[in-house]
Amino acid sequence: MSVTFFRPLAALLICLTSLLPAGYAQAGPLEVGILPNVSARVLMQQYQPMQTYLDTRLERKTAFSSAPDWSSFYQRAGEGRYDVIVAASNVARLIQKNFGYQPSLSYQPDVPGLFVTLATQQETSPQKIIAGQTLAFANPASLVAIEGLAWLKTLGIETDKNLSMLRVKGEDSVGNILLRGDAVAGIMSMGEFMSHPEDIRKQLKIHTRFKDVPSFVVMTSPKLSAVERDALTRDLLFFAQSTPEGVEFFKRTGFKGIVPVDEAKLRALDQFNEATREALLR
To answer: Of 105, 164, 217, 234, which has the highest C-beta tally within 10 A?
Structure first.
């Protein structure tokens, strides 16, 4: 068979390949990075239904991963390791501005910020509970932590004056810290609170719900094409509205929905950019 026959055949194959959905054309997996607001073990269990759905829907394998901490996650985003990111809203805004990721979706509802004590705590005044004592938290760059410290400041309680801070690391939890007596109260999100095993949650008490903050944001890398971004957005909206996997995902995470992102709401978070950056780079 002549070489001249193969040339038009090869050209035809290239054209046909270009018409395939984005998932077919990509050789490697779609890298999805999840901000480690809870342990990696819990995150992977929570996101397994979404991964199962996307593996089928995209006809391209996905690789879901996290990072040891928020700072490492932010660094990896800057290195372009992720095709898709799910991050707390203030971190997402910083990643958008600094690294060019594009926000597409956000979770619902907003995230409650909680001041948590032991269930046996009888005192009702936050000042009397925490002043001169130790407060535990897991993620200093979280908007919940930033707003929680601002709330305590309005009560006259400030770090380096009448409050000591204890950062929880690794696979430990704020709840464990309180039960061990290493702190008298903790700042955490509702998601963090619910990620504790039931036997630990029963020994804790939500003392104050001080503020609800914008929820997690789904972002796409500038490496993805507009066609890929649009397809992923459509697929995740369908996942949230019409699939058994979506129902299971919301059951495991406590979220209720996924909707198009409100970019005005994201821009309003610019006031927290510097505080977020400082906490991430500590």
So the answer is: 217
- Token pair for 25: 């054309």
Beta strands in 119-220 (DSSP E): 133-137, 163-167, 185-189, 204-213, 217-220
* pTM for this prediction: 0.85
One digit per residue, pLDDT tens: the chain, 282 residues? 444 433 444 343 334 334 444 443 455 899 999 999 988 889 999 999 999 999 999 878 999 999 999 999 999 999 999 999 999 999 999 999 999 999 999 999 999 999 999 999 999 999 999 989 999 998 889 999 999 999 999 999 987 788 999 998 766 799 999 999 999 999 999 989 998 999 999 999 999 999 999 999 999 999 999 999 999 999 999 999 989 999 999 999 999 999 999 999 999 999 999 999 999 987
